[in-house]
Design brief:
homodimer, alpha+beta, 4-stranded antiparallel β-sheet, about 20% strand, globular, disordered N terminus, DNA-binding
Amino acid sequence: MTTDPYNIACTHGFIQSSCSDCNLKGLCLPIAMDIKDIDKVDNIIKRSRPIQAGEHIYRTGDGFTSIFAVRSGSIKTYLLDDDGVEQVTGFYLPGEILGFDGIGTEKHGCNVMAMETSTVCEIPFERIEELSLQIPVLQRHFFQLMSQQIEADHQMMLTLSKKNAEGRVATLLLSLSRRFGRRNLSPNSLRLPMSRMDIGNFLGLTIETVSRTFSRLQKEGLIKVDGREIHINDHKQLQSICHASK
Amino acid sequence: MTTDPYNIACTHGFIQSSCSDCNLKGLCLPIAMDIKDIDKVDNIIKRSRPIQAGEHIYRTGDGFTSIFAVRSGSIKTYLLDDDGVEQVTGFYLPGEILGFDGIGTEKHGCNVMAMETSTVCEIPFERIEELSLQIPVLQRHFFQLMSQQIEADHQMMLTLSKKNAEGRVATLLLSLSRRFGRRNLSPNSLRLPMSRMDIGNFLGLTIETVSRTFSRLQKEGLIKVDGREIHINDHKQLQSICHASK
DNA sequence: CGCCCCATTGAGACGGCTCAACTTGCGTGG
DNA sequence: CCACGCAAGTTGAGCCGTCTCAATGGGGCG
């Protein structure tokens, strides 16, 4: 994709022309990978034009060909069941990788939508499989990424099954805080990329309950809420109400 | 492990000495795999002595070395959070593969316990990684297995987040029914391998609610319950109450 | 300005939880 | 052989947290 104008014309600050220049490579590529292998990966990656808020990257049933790394913005994945009920299954921030659904069936198993203007790196999976045969550390890396997804999903099952509204909201806030921190952003001041609707859907709560919970946490002084701007005043206490208790 | 007596002395009907003789190979190995490759896999697999009900195969924090295929019996996986609260994250039946947690961290991320006397095939993961470099169809297979695990976990998130007690129980029953059917057992008459406690824990319900729900489904004629013996009278109606609705 | 969407807050309803009593099946020991 | 204890499951009564429904507030945009 060296002819892709977005690789050359850097229309905004986030666009990078190669993985080795990308400040997110520590998040989405193996640390131990040497430069010429990074270049091999780099050569198969397609960098997208910006995706607008509300636009889909793929939908359930689309043929599976690629996985995606978030370069900028934020992405949600969600299921739609037969009755049209939506379940948000994950939020993805820059440096995080999504799209591991659908390898088994060759069809994607969920919908992927940008929550704000975003850019992604498209990584054709067949090419990754070929490369993985030559670069053991890359094969290992993708096994690890999928394993981490599985562990995160299991934690989410615990959250949905055993925690009350406060615990669920606090767990999400701390997860976002940690992931912001990993990108060298403040872990205490963050702007939620998702609506109350998406938060509630993800956490198995109504928007009213999410809103009331934010208000209560604010009244207790643990956080400061201003729309989507959240300031975390007391990480420890937030941690302590993450425990399971319905 | 050709010196393992359990490979030779077949103490009960389920023990098989090789993958190519195993009637579950259609479930845990790729269909398209040729015989000499199956033998290569076969050579790295360690077949265990029977594991008793309540015995652990591994626990959270144990070093990750292997994944496991269930050969007979039934297995549950569960998380323990800091307060000792348990979350059952999955039930595994013969032909199913578990243990994909912990590849990322090199430490297992959950606990694995036999729910009844069981046997498993231990598959050293580093050997699988080596073999996968030589046998592309095997690499693909393990990506597929992990992808399927992720999709199943996302369905579970929908179940926990959006369904009421009836929907959760019905969803579990139909999942078990389908998996029994895949092994050429009756999809209508099944013996639950797990206690009401485990069912409730998995589904985010108390045992009382599980019990009441079974009773209600029986009263409505959809199923017949006798302890752990379940007969499904009406698959279609059971399907129709699986929809999301809290 | 007026419209719409998102978020907040309140009042009442309801599903599942808690607590408690009782049943059943099973193994143990007298 | 029966008595007993124990674990697992069932059923009932009342409570509580979250949902539902409804009204209100605020910000962005034509």
